[in-house]
Amino acid sequence: MTNRMKHGARPTALAATVAAGLLTALATASPATAAESTAPECVQYHQSWRYTDVHNGCAETVAVTVAYTNGQWAPCRVVAPGQWATFAGYGTDGNYVTGLRTCDPAATSGI
């Protein structure tokens, strides 16, 4: 009987350890998401089915990404004053842009 109790405790301990690791990973990812905010109004976008062009009309450099209706990933791009950056367009399935978000280029990666 004692052997069964010891054996039964191992899977429970393993499950607890795995759950704690997952929660830690989620908590670590949250600050990068929380750091994003709506891009300044001086940053404008023009979308077509093929491309979304973003223009920085601000006096300072900005780092922005595009938010799409289907939540697809978009890179974080650093755009100097007066410059343009190109992102994916809405495509034939109508994946429209919902807005521009600020981002941290050091925290993003190509998925």
Automatic annotation (TrEMBL):
Keyword Lipid biosynthesis in record: no
SMART domains: A_amylase_inhib
Signal sequence segment: 1-34
Pfam families, A to Z: A_amylase_inhib
SUPFAM superfamilies linked to this entry: alpha-Amylase inhibitor tendamistat (SSF49498)
Keyword set, alphabetical order: Alpha-amylase inhibitor, Disulfide bond, Signal
Ranges annotated as spanning the membrane: none
Alphabetized InterPro entries for the sequence: A-amylase_inhib, A-amylase_inhib_sf
Known function: Inhibits mammalian alpha-amylases specifically but has no action on plant and microbial alpha-amylases.
Name of protein: Alpha-amylase inhibitor
Organism: Streptomyces gulbargensis
